[in-house]
Amino acid sequence: MFSWKSWLINGIHICFIGMGSKRQLIRSFVEFALKDGTCLTIDGYKVQGTNCDGLWQYVERELFNRKESKSVADSKQTVLSSIAELDMPFYLVIYGIDLLVVHNTLKFLRPLLKISNVRVIGTMDHLRSGVVVPSLEQLLSNLRLVEVDTNVDYRSELLSLWEKHPPCYILREDQHKSASEMHAVISALNVNHRKLFSLIAEMQLAACSNGERFDGIEKYSLLRERRAITICNSESKLDALLTEFITHNLIQQSRGPGGKLYLMIPFPP
Questions:
Q1: Class of domain 1-163
Q2: Domain boundary assignment for the chain
Q3: Molecular function terms in GO for this entry (predicted)?
């Protein structure tokens, strides 16, 4: 953490990539090392696709803890002038910064990113890093990538997605579940269940990022996935793990091309 902090002091932005959710890592870093400045956290899973006007008003509300925003021009001017006048660092923490790049949302914050005391700490899905990094470097000239494999499941990211776009089964009267109930189900499962769910979530997020139609992950392709070797190495073990997810409606199973079984976590891409 000390090297990360020294990079920020020297004007270098940081983006964490690697396997697993990095939210808890970032929270610990913020609490431990970033007390010398002001922090603003943006959840890319919630604001992806937001237009320019909506993003500036969102930043103003979050920064000043306001329920209502001013006009867009006033919001932008208020945010920029307030941050520029700070005599301390301004840390902009962005979960899922790759989503803001893919959806052309981050570019709206270009004036903010150019302020001298602004430092960005972002997280990125490693499966998209090769595509996203060149575009990100155009917005952040001094960028350092830090690869960390936390192997923590992606429940926080999924809950953020579900908050804005609820899974289709939440809308059904006979199977209504709240986000907290889904979280409780995932938390109650064993380690291999959570690892498998995290892997499926990561594969689905990667597949959905290109904007093409997504019909699901071919069930038994998971047995050929090297990341699943330590989780399940046979059809019987895979079926046993998936039973809990399907029973609790956390994963949908359907027939696809060629009669093959496909799996999908039911939230819209």
A1: alpha beta
A2: 1-163, 179-264
A3: DNA replication origin binding
Instruction: Say if residue 40's pLDDT is above 90.
Output: yes
Distance separating alpha carbons of residues 180 and 226, to the nearest angstrom: 31
CA distance 127 to 205: 9
Instruction: Give me 172's structure tokens.
Output: 């059904």
What is the crossing angle of helices 155-164 and 191-208, to 10°? 50
What was the pLDDT predicted at 234?
87
Render pLDDT for 145-199 as a digit per residue (tens, 0 to 9): 999 888 887 777 776 766 655 554 444 444 445 566 667 787 888 888 888 888 8
């392709």: which residue's tokens? 221
Classify 259 in phi/psi space as left (phi over 0), alpha (psi -120 to 50) or beta: left
